[in-house]
Amino acid sequence: MIRALCFLALFIAGSPPQDPGTADWVPVSATPADGELSIERTNGSPPLVIPRGEELSYLVEIDIFGKGVDVGTATFKSWVEGADAASVGHLEVAFKASAPTYTLDHQLHSQHPLSGDIKLQYSDTQRGSENRRREIRVERGEEGLTSAYRSDGHCKGCEDKAHFRKRVLRKPKHCKGCDGGEHRVWREFRERTVPEDTLDFLSSIYLIRSQIRCELERIATPVLEKDKLWDLSLVRGEAKVIEVPKGKYACRKIIIDAKKPASESHEGEFSGLFGMEGSMNFWVHESTGVMVQIVGKLPFGLRVKIRLKEAKGAPEGLITKKG
Ligand SMILES: [Zn+2]
Ligand SMILES: [Zn+2]
Questions:
Q1: What's the gap in Å between 211 CA and the centre of ligand 1?
Q2: Which one in 11, 188, 227, 297 has a CA-CA gap of 20 to 30 Å to 286?
Q3: What is the number of the ligand closest to the CA of 182?
Q4: pLDDT digits (tens, 9 = 90+) for 83-122
C-alpha cells in the first residue's frame, strides 16, 4: 500500500492542483440522523453509530515538496442490511488510484451484526497491480471474545496446474512468486482472546460521531490490527474552519493515538488507515462529526491528506448552501 501511494504520487506529481470548492459554510445545530443503527458498547461508552445510506467521497493527496499531489479517491459508505434484531451494520471504504503502470483498488469492509455471537467481521482486500486479502472475525465464546485472523500469501507449491509456469523445453514448474491474485491462498487462522468492544480501525473512526454528539473530550477503544491489539484513544482538540473541495466547514480536531497495551509484546508502530503511522489528525464537522479532512504521516516522512469532495445521505447539518 505504501509502495503504491509513493509510486502514484511520483507518477502524478506535476499535474495541476484540484480546484477548491467555493461553497460557504452555514452554521447549523446538531440534528440526530434518522434510523441509524446503534451498536451498544460496555462500561458506559457511547454506542457505535452506523448511518443508513451514507456515501462520502474524498480526494487523497500526498505532499511532495510542499505541493499536494492528487493520488486517488477514497469513498466511505455505510448502510444497514436486514431489520430489527437481524440488522447488520456495514462500514466500507474503497481507495482507488491509477497511474500508467500501477492500479490500486483497496477495500476495507466491517460488518456489525446487532445480535448473535459474531460481533465483528472485517475484510481488507487489495486488488490491482498487487493483490492481498486479510480477514478478522470477532466472536463471543464461553470465556469472552475471541478474534480469528487470517491473511493470504503466494502458494508455496501444490498440484494445481493453473499455478504452474510453462518453461522452454522443460517440464512446467510451480510459480515461485508473483503479484497475481489467482496464485494466492489463505493461510491458517490465528486466534486470540480480545477485550470487550474490540473494533477494527475503520469502525473506530465512526465512534467520533458519538464522541461529538456526547461532547466527550476523550473516547477510547481496543483496536485490532491483524491479530495485534492496540489501545486507541480519540481526543478532542482545537476548533478551526477547514476548507476542502466540498466547501468550508467549522471543524474540530480529533487526535487519534494508538498505544501498545501492557499485555502485548508486538513491535513496531500502529498502522492506521492506508498505512498511516503514529498519530493521525482527523478534522471532523463540529456538529455532525462527519470527517472533513484527515492528515497523516506515511513511512519515509510523506504526509497524506484526505479531503471531503462529495457527501450523499450525510447528516442534515453538513449540507452547505451549494449542497
Ligand atoms: Zn499452488
Ligand atoms: Zn504466482
A1: 48
A2: 297
A3: 2
A4: 999 999 999 999 998 877 888 899 999 999 999 999 999 9
